[in-house]
Amino acid sequence: MDFELPELDRKATQAAVERELEKYRIFKHLTFEEKEAATTSHINDIGGGKGNLTSDQTGSVAIYNVDEKSIRRKYCERIERAVKRLPPMERFLIETRYMADDAEYLTDMKVYCFKFQPPISATTYDKIRWKAFYKLALDLNIARTM
Fold it and tell me: pLDDT value at position 46?
């Protein structure tokens, strides 16, 4: 029985993983603004609208508020579980560079020079990051093959 790991398109996979981690950061660190039902009704003077259709705006808004919170929470938990399964160095890199509050303001150089103790080289950093991206892409089912 032979099992081979897939060959991934490095740039496309990295972009996909970075997009997912940015989405995680937005969902995690920005508050969810709940929709509110309009208190004024809209009266249509011109007949012939959507006949026999009733709308329950309050119900729709309530469902959206509950579902959207749940979707965001589950998404964040899924990303966190995937990152927790990574080896320590890869996990540290992903959490520091991509999942922290200030991740948008950190550069790769700041991470490998100042966050890693002892500091590591840029080449080592790139190797660790690619291994982490590879594993996350496969785990999150966002891998881009060649």
Answer: 61
Distance, in Å, from the CA atom of 34 to the CA atom of 37, rounded to the nearest integer, reads 10
Over its C-alpha atoms, the chain yields an Rg (Å, rounded) of 22
Q: Is residue 129 packed enough to be buried (19+ CB in 10 Å), middle (13-18) or exposed (0-12)?
A: buried
13-41: average pLDDT: 84
Maximum Cα interatomic distance, the chain, rounded to a whole number of Å: 74
Q: What are phi and psi of 66, to 5 degrees?
A: -70, -50
Distance (Å, whole) CA 32 – CA 68: 9
The yes-or-no verdict on residue 60 having pLDDT over 70 is yes
Question: Which three-class secondary structure state does DSSP give residue 14?
Answer: helix
| CB-CB neighbours of 27 under 10 Å | 15
Please report the pLDDT score of residue 55 as a whole number: 62
Question: pLDDT confidence of 36, banded at 50, 70, 90?
Answer: confident
Percent of the chain that is helix, strand, coil (3-state, to 5)? 60, 0, 35
